Amino acid sequence: MNRIYEREKLFMRAVVLTGIGKLEIQDVPEPKVRNENDVLLKINAVGICGSDTHYYETGRIGDQIIEYPFVFGHECSATVQEIGTGVDRVKIGDNVVVDPAMSCHQCDQCASGRPHTCRQLQFLGCPGQAAGCLSDYIVMPQESCYPTRDKISLEQGAICEPLSIGIYAVRQAGLKPGQAYAILGAGPIGLCCLLAAQAEEFRNCYMTEKISERIKVAEEVSSNWVGNPQECDVVDEILKREPNGVDVVFECAGEQETIDQAVNIIKPGGKVMLIGIPRTETISIEIHTFRREEGALITVRRQNNCTQRAIDMIAEGKTDVDFMVTHRFSLEETRKALDIVSGYQDGVVKAIINI
User: Fold this and answer.
1) Are residues 36 and 114 in the same domain?
2) Is the pTM of this model over 0.85?
3) Is 237 in the same domain as 332?
4) Do 275 and 165 contact (CB within 8 A), yes or no?
5) CB atoms closer than 10 angstroms to residue 338
6) Domain CATH code at residue 263
7) Backbone angles phi, psi at 255, to 5 degrees
8) Residues 262-311: pLDDT tens digits?
């Protein structure tokens, strides 16, 4: 058991950010079921996301600034421990995938089918919203709990969060059979975009990546072509293969360099899907090129009702995500995991904290 009693209160372990580049494993009060819709979850596996490394290294993403101490993390699978009186979606003992977004279901955004941009959105591990899942337990509303019915593993459950983003990005892009597309950045999100596209039989893909181990992974997952921008002019190389340009670019690196490349490889009327999170406050676009081509710039905000699709894709064998998990750590090794992921060390693709 990971619970301890102190002054008649229940405590648990949590990874707590205490400053930039600083974290501690602390005993914090265990969350409780307080509302009829609440589900108490025992966390099983947590994926380390690029946004987690932003918070770890800089304490912020844009105007979302951490007030210390803070518990972070949002990609997780869990087991139901306790439920509120009104819960009928899950039962005690169920393994679930957690959608980290908690929407109000009342505002104009929720009413228009956009709960991911809810006016009152609470998101796991997001400053000013909700504490994260790098802990023994969390409480979530039942709508955020997706039972796996033991059709996927606990680690696969944690991967469902980034996979659902890839699924949503592909949906927003509106790819059609036979169209060519590029994915700039072969990290977890770029690979999830690739898997989501391949599951829909969209295979005419070009990828770029700087890290040699990730290039090898991308090639093994069967992208048409993978190029390293440090070794070749990737714009020229893609245009040699697609002289008219590609229909869609998924920008998954969050770098000015890749945004510039995206603008220069889309065909007229093409779409640039911005998924990567830049570390800078602003980005720029070669506006005259982009304007003349009537390009569309579309930002992708997390996932939008795509979690169940991610579970089903894995459970039905339409995609394999196991190859992405290259590193595994205990809760006590979270600092090591963050250092490896933030430094792109040791060929890491996805690091998992097994709790």
Assistant:
1) yes
2) yes
3) no
4) yes
5) 25
6) 3.40.50.720
7) -120, 145
8) 999 999 999 999 999 998 889 999 999 899 999 999 999 999 999 999 99
